[in-house]
Amino acid sequence: MKKLTIIGATGSLGLPITKQLSQKGIQVKAVVRDVESAKKKLPKGVEVVYGDVSDKASLASALIGSETIYLNLNTTNWNESAPFQPEREGIINVIDTGKVLGVKHIMQIVGIDLSHPEFATKGMEYKTNRIRKPAIEHLKNSGIHYTYFHCSVFLDSFPTFIQDEDFGIIGDHKHPVYFTNTTDLAENISNAIGNEKAYNRSFTVQGTEGISFPEAAKRFASVYNPKIQVSEYPMETIKHLGLPSKEYEEFMEHMLSYVEQLKEEQVSETTWEILGKPSLSIEEFTRSLIEKS
Q1: Do the Cβ atoms of 188 and 275 come closer than 8 Å?
Q2: Distance CA 286, CA 19 (A)
Q3: What single DSSP character describes residue 68?
């Protein structure tokens, strides 16, 4: 039986991935900060243990017996001077602890922009990569086998753009995007466990079809709720959304500006050969979301 320890199992992407890996028969251990809350969200077959990436002592206990780890952490700012960032010091703590405990393989999700900066038509740098890079280099130099999944934009995020019956897209998004989803990524992760062909490599994770954000939104909405209308708004709209902080507002503007000028090409053939080809169209994935809701 395949075994996997997941850190970040209850996040917006981590939760569906964890559920699907468990459904595949993988023995999953979730390392979480709030055990009781996680138990309510995760399948009964998932072992839930306490661990905090800021606390090496808790990791030393949580990671006992783990051979393969999947990291699904998230950075929502690019403050390089912050004393702690989950995707920097947090992951370094996991690596250092894992090495002592004999962890063999660590996998992590990152963006496709990190492996293909040439997709940025305006030469923009996605600033959160400044946070991620030190931990990435630390893992590559650790002696632990690594696998990175460089993912395109997730269809899973689409419901968050919907308010009432309006799918609001901020920015002028005309370039092709090869949208992916957590179902196909879960399959890639499953196929990477114990797979020596996946060791010490980076894989791009894309769908098979390159289309613009507005067109993808229309196809998603046609299945999700045909009453939904897709609307496009200028970037300045972000300033009027009432986001929780100025820092988060700046992060969202930077993220959407980066995606706006991102022009993907299909570069995932090697991923398909080693870890499996995407199986779901936009419409098929949308129907699966409806079934699970």
Answers
A1: yes
A2: 17
A3: E
Q: Is the model's pLDDT at 90 over the cut of 90?
A: yes
pLDDT digit string (tens) for 211-262?
A: 999 999 999 999 999 999 999 999 999 999 888 998 889 988 998 999 999 9
Q: pTM for this one?
A: 0.96
Round to the nearest angstrom and report the end-to-end CA distance of the chain: 29
Chain segment 33-61, per-residue pLDDT in tens: 999 999 999 999 999 999 999 999 999 99
Given a contact cutoff of 8 angstroms between Cβ atoms, the answer to whether 93 and 54 are in contact is yes
Longest dimension (CA), the chain: 55
- Which among 150, 70, 154 is positioned nearest to 111, based on CA atoms? 150
Mapping DSSP onto H, E and C, the string for 76-143 reads CCCCCCCCCCHHHHHHHHHHHHHHHHCCCEEEEEEEHHHHCHHHECCCCCCCCHHHHHHHHHHHHCCC
What CATH number does domain 3-292 carry, 3.90.190.20, 3.40.50.920, 3.40.50.2300, 3.40.50.720?
3.40.50.720
